Give the backbone structure.
Amino acid sequence: MAVLRDPDLSGLTATDRKTLLDTGLAPGSARDFARRLRLLLPQGWFPAYRGDEVEEAPVLQALLTGFGAVLSVIWHLIIDVKRQTRLGTTQGAFLEMAAVDFFGPGAMARLEQEKDGHYRRRLVTSLAAPLNTRMAVSESVRRLSGAAPRIIELGSAQDCGAWCHGGGYGASRSRYGSRNGGQFCLEVFPKIPVDQRTVQAVIRVTKASGVIAWVRMLD
């Protein structure tokens, strides 16, 4: 990066006495493309190019800047398209499209007012998240709602207690289901806004196939 100099070739400084540096033209800008096009023109057809500060062919420069503006738009469009091809850099609606590609429609929907950074972290974490276990279901709901849920397996004495020992008909910790098993109750105490349909979608992709989950949202 060159140092800015005055006509006497002395280095220029700012009011805080720091040296001023010439950052040059921004790559991909209209002026940058105009300069590149100017350097491609045959020598002798137009006045020699001496930089943007000294321009002896202003009409030519204006024409090339117009072409450069079009090329600059294409340049930035290519950069933006390239950014959308990677989960780590995609953003906006393209990030939601990536979620559908990886998890299917509605499985990992964006939360209300959720920023791209938080949404991307949820997607990346879910790609390698454990599945099918009680801990996996609890962790997936915790990441979504901000608080660990209460999971009650209907056939577990640890969750429901036993007759006359913290359990039985009417006991607050007991839940009832089929004797065939394959069911559990899940109570969510969200600390961040989340709707029940989103919670159910996350549970659906995390729990084991064929297992029924009864979900209850509590304030």
Summary: The two ends are 59 Å apart (CA to CA). The chain has a mean pLDDT of 82. The chain has three domains: 2-85, 92-128, 134-217.
